[in-house]
Amino acid sequence: MRAIQQVEFGGPEVLKLVELPVPEPAEGEVLVRVSRAGVNFADTHQREDQYVARQSLPLTPGSEVAGVREDTGQRVVALCGHGGYAEYALAPADRVFPIPEGLDDGTALALLLQGLTAWHLYRTCARIADGESVLVVSGAGGVGSLAVQLARPMGAGRVIATASSEEKRALCLSLGADAAIDGDPDGLRDRLLEANEGREVDVVLEMAGGPVFDVALRAMADMGRLVVYGISSREQNEVRTGRLLKRSQSIVGFWLFHYLERTEHLATPLAELFALAASGQVRAVVGETYGLSEARRAQEDLAARRTRGKLLLDPSR
């Protein structure tokens, strides 16, 4: 089968298109014939072995796929962990979910890893209360575009998003944000307070790290919660505990893969996400589909912030 493999860690140039044997499923595993593979920012960290979990070589990237079960012929999405950038992928049987009729592969994939992340940011981590204001950093991205839309169904009041261009800010507004502002750290706190009608924000969903994290924390209200689910800037932050104590603020870290061992953390929220999509309350923003041979370009475009929404790979080209 055609697959992307790397035998060393490094830049996008280590991603090579190769021929590999079709994997054989072990007991409790499902073999999926891949129609689309999801591309995520975490893939760029894994490529350099700078991800939350240490990686091993050789590595076929790709943590999620949509396709057809080889044993039943059922259309599914699957969390495979690794191996998704290929024509066939293995996944644990309890991490394989049927795609509802009428839902396309791109939408189903967007609602899988990124949709589940957005759901847990609100429900599990921030535990948002009715009417609270929300700041979604990078609201035009894969997780961000879904988090903007989920804010209202989750009970949020005012919703503010950051984005790096006028086009992306217009997208955030079309998805339901009350305000969309430039995410550049310079002057961000003032823009955020103005967008929130002079008030500090209650909940922050943050995936950049570095200066953006520091500014967002300074713009957060008493008893506010800042949820960290990424470090796209690759800049770590330090926090003074006295500040958290004085303002009763919380900082919560989230990594979806800690939640994979309990089915209720996956199946129940995913069913809710599929229902919201079917009712039109949530629209997955599906970005460009690249050929498998273009995996390098896909990661380069993602890292350079030239993309929006969910990026896909098509293993047939």
Q: Compute the number of helices.
A: 9
Overall pLDDT? 95
CATH class of the largest domain: Alpha Beta
Spatial extent as radius of gyration: 19 Å
User: Termini, distance in Å?
Assistant: 12 Å
The CATH homologous superfamily of the largest domain is named NAD(P)-binding Rossmann-like Domain
| Known CATH architecture of the largest domain | 3-Layer(aba) Sandwich
Describe what this molecule looks like in 3D.
- The protein is built from 9 helices and 15 strands.
- The longest helix has 22 residues, at 105-126.
- The protein is globular, with a radius of gyration of 19 Å.
- The protein has 317 residues and is α/β, with parallel strands linked by helices.
- Strands 3, 4, 5, 6, 7, 14 and 15 form a 7-stranded mixed sheet that branches.
- Helix 2 (105-126) crosses helix 8.
- The chain folds into 2 domains: 2-99 and 285-314, Medium-chain alcohol dehydrogenases, catalytic domain (Quinone Oxidoreductase, Chain A, domain 1, Alpha-Beta Complex); 114-257, NAD(P)-binding Rossmann-like Domain (Rossmann fold, 3-Layer(aba) Sandwich), CATH 3.40.50.720.
Structural descriptors:
317 residues, alpha/beta, Quinone Oxidoreductase, Chain A, domain 1, Rossmann fold, seven-stranded mixed sheet, six-stranded parallel sheet, 15 strands
Short description:
With 317 residues, this protein is of the alpha/beta class. It has helices at 41-47, 105-126, 142-150, 166-174, 188-195, 211-218, 241-247, 267-279, 295-303; strands spanning 2-5, 16-19, 29-39, 64-69, 75-79, 88-92, 96-98, 134-136, 159-163, 179-182, 201-206, 220-228, 250-253, 286-291, 310-314.
